[in-house]
Amino acid sequence: MIWEIVKIGWKAWREHKVSGIPFFISGIASTSVFLLLTLFVVHIISPELPGLILTGAIANVGREYIAQLFERCMENVDLIFSAILAAILLFVIFDAFFRAWGIKVCSDALKCDVKLVEGLWYAKSRYLPFLVYNLLLQSITFAGAIPLYYVIRGIDKTDIHSVVQSAIAFLVWAIVLMIVISVILFLFTFVPYAIVLDGESVLTSIKKGYRVLRISITETVIFWLLLVLVGMLTWVPFYPLQLLGFVGFVVSHILSIIAAWLIVAPIVTSWWIELYKRKSKML
């Protein structure tokens, strides 16, 4: 069944390449939000940094400049964290709509009946519950990230032992948080499809998604591994560009990300939809 679903997802994208458009627009919107966040943080801690990078002078900076950056980060940690939270909130608001659109379009692609505009209006009708679901996930992430904030706030920059201990605590808690988030995402694998495709409420979708997961643990694990593998392979065709220097490095990464939006995202989404539909019929 797994290989059959893989072929179905590939065929759906090959015959309906427009299914990547919602994911591409979502990627552009999300990138814009985090680019603005990056520019804001850079402006706060180091307005001169872009000039140093463009002129190549960044290669000659010493420890004093790095120490200054660290001090400026510590002085503005509250503002930086607030900006990060605002950026994530904007990301969720945009991403929820475009992901719902993408799920609907990929579902239609599996039926060989893709209509982008109709899919857009359908996504609008499911936007609110899907947004609530995404905000729920982000709230869990925010709660888990609170200790990281206090770890940073507790750093005594004049004491090297405090810096080292805080760095270790930050790393350990960040790893734990990533593991917890990964487990939650795994448990909620099918929830988005219950919300968008079946028109269920958030609570009902969580229950249904968990029931589908229970009868498809093996397939779900395999498809998550496939997702990671395909994501890694996306970089391979563009790797030779990195041999051309810094510009080639940047271009290769941009092309890889665009390929992930236009090709990988709709194919993987089609896999999840097909698996969800097959297993949900067995409930």
Give an account of the 3D structure.
It is a single chain. This protein has helices at 2-15, 21-45, 49-55, 63-75, 77-110, 116-125, 127-153, 160-187, 191-198, 202-214, 217-233, 246-280. The protein is mostly helical and 283 residues long. The chain folds into 3 domains: 13-125, no CATH class; 127-214; 216-283, no CATH class. Helix 5 (77-110) packs across helix 9. The model has no long low-confidence stretch (mean pLDDT 85).
SS strand fraction: under 5%
Task: Characterize the main sheet.
Answer: none
Q: Structural class of the secondary structure composition? A: mainly alpha
Given as residue ranges, the uncertain stretches (5+ residues, pLDDT < 50) are none
Q: What is the number of E strands?
A: 0
Taken from the alpha-carbon principal axes, the silhouette is globular
**Element-by-element helix/strand order:** HHHHHHHHHHHH
- Taken together, the total number of domains comes to 3
- The number of helical segments is 12
Chain-averaged pLDDT: 85
**Gyration radius, rounded:** 22 Å
Amino- and carboxy-terminal Cα gap = 18 Å
Bin the helical content: over 70%
